[in-house]
Amino acid sequence: MDPSIQPHREPNFALYQKEMFLLSQKGSHPAFSTHPDKLQEEAHKSLSQGGWLYASCNAGIGWTDRANREGKWRIIPRMLRDTTARDTTIELFGHKIAAPICFAPIGINKIYHPLGELNSSKVAGELNIPYCLSTAGSQPIEEVARVNGNGPRFFQLYCPHDEELEDSLLKRAWDSGFDACIFTLDTWQLAWRHEDIAASNYAFYRGIGAEIGLSDPVFKKRIAEAGLDPNKIEDMPKIGEKWIDNVWHGKAWTWEKVPKLVKKWKELSGGRPFLLKGIQHPDDAIKAVECGCDGIVVSNHAGRQVDGAVGSLEMLPEIVEAVGDKCTILFDSGIRTGADVFKALALGAKAVCVGRLFVYGMSIAGEAGVRHVMKSLLADFDILMNCAGVNSIAEIQKPQLRECISYFRECTISVLIIP
C-alpha cells in the first residue's frame, strides 16, 4: 500500500481486501465467497448430512435464530473525519488483542474437518484474537493450546456432575494456558432440534467427539470402572454417550454453584477472570456480578436452545445499563458481518464472539477456510470503521446508531391484521 495513501499501521486488516482484488492480476480469485448466505450454501455442499445438520440446526422452528438476525439498529455514518490510521486493537482481560472479535466455543469440530479445533486455534493465534475452546471440543486441551502458540485463549466449561472430573478439566485448561474460564448456562439439555432428531444425528452417541474426555485421567478411570475400552471400536459409542451425558443432559445447576466455581477457578488461576455465558436478562446479569463473576457473555446460543426467545442484541442495552460499569460484557449470537460487530460494540459490548462463520469456512477448506473467513470479517469491520468515520474502538458509541422498525416488519404486521 502506498504510504502516501495509507500510513503504516498494525494490524491493518483492510489490506486483505486489496490482496483479494489483486488475485485478478494472476487470473485467479478467492476460493469461495464470504457473504454469509453464500458461505452457508457452500458449506452445505461440503459437509456430510450429519455435519450440516448439527451446524445449521436451531431450536424448534428457528424463531430465535431469525430474531438474532432481524436487526432494528442502523448505523449513522459520519463524514470528513481522518480515519486513515484506524486502531482496531483493545485490551481484554490483560491481553492486547488485534480486534474486539473472538472465536466462540463450538463443540465437535471434527464433524466439520478431520483436524477440527486445531484449524481454528492455529488461525486465532496467528491473528492475535482470543480462541475459546469448548468442553465439547474434539481435540485434547493440550493439543489445542500447542497449535495456538502464544495467542490469548479461554476455556468454556460445561460443568460435569462429577467434581473430580470438573477439577481435572479446569486444571488441564489452566496448565495449558487457558487463562479465563467461561461457564455456559443454557445447555443442561439440548433443545428440540427437529432435523437432528429426524436423522438421529448426534455425533457423541456414534463415538465421535470425546477426545477431551479420552485424554483426561479422571474420565479414563470412569470408563475403566464401567468396563469400557477405547481401543475397542464397538465400545466408542458408549464412551461418547458416557462423556457427553456427564457434560450435558444432567440436572440443571443453580446460582448456588456459581460462587463455588468462581472461588475454585480464582484459587487455581491466581485470580484470572471467570465469566457466565448465556445471560439474557438484566436480573441474571446483576446476579452474576453479585456471585463474583468478572464478566458475562450475552448469548442465546445462536438460537439453538430456546425457540421463540428474544434476540440477544435486543437485550444487550438493558444488560449494559444494569451491569456495564461492574463487569466485562461480551456478546455472542448472530454475528455475521462487520456491521454486526459495530452494532454490538456501540450498544456496550467489549468484544463479540463469532461461531458459525468460521466452522462453515472450516468445512469448505479446513485451516485455509477458517483463515479466509476470519480475515474477511476483520477486513469488513476495519473498512466499515473507515467508511462510518470511526478511528478507534473507543469511538464506537450508541449515538452512532438509530433504532428503527424495519420495512419488512411493518409489511408483515400489515398483512397479518388485514381481515
Features:
17 helices; alpha/beta; two-stranded antiparallel sheet; 419 residues; eight-stranded parallel sheet; TIM Barrel; 44% helix
Topology diagram in text:
Blueprint: H1 15-22, H2 36-46, H3 49-56, H4 63-69, E1 73-75, E2 90-92, E3 95-97, E4 101-103, H5 117-127, E5 131-134, H6 141-148, E6 153-157, H7 163-175, E7 181-184, H8 194-198, H9 211-214, H10 217-225, H11 236-247, H12 257-269, E8 274-279, H13 282-290, E9 295-298, H14 312-323, E10 328-332, H15 338-346, E11 351-354, H16 356-388, E12 401-403, H17 407-417
Parallel strand pairs: 4-11, 5-6, 6-7, 7-8, 8-9, 9-10, 10-11
Antiparallel strand pairs: 1-12, 2-3
Helix pairs in contact: 2-16, 5-6, 5-16, 7-12, 13-14, 15-16
Domain FMN hydroxy acid dehydrogenase: 28-406
InterPro entries: Aldolase_TIM, Alpha-hydoxy_acid_DH_FMN, FMN-dep_DH, FMN_HAD
Active site: 301
Q: Kindly state the mean pLDDT as a whole number?
A: 92
| Number of individual domains | 1
Q: Give the CATH superfamily.
A: Aldolase class I
How far do the termini sit from each other? 60 Å
Shape: globular
CATH topology: TIM Barrel
How many helices? The count is 17
SSE run: HHHHEEEEHEHEHEHHHHHEHEHEHEHEH
Give the strand order, joined by hyphens, for the main sheet. 4-11-10-9-8-7-6-5
Structural class: alpha/beta
C-alpha-based Rg, rounded: 21 Å
What is the level 1 CATH name? Alpha Beta
* Number of DSSP strand runs: 12
The level of helicity is 40-55%
Largest beta-sheet characterization: 8 strands, parallel
CATH architecture: Alpha-Beta Barrel
Return residue spans where pLDDT drops below 50 for at least 5 consecutive residues. Answer: 407-419
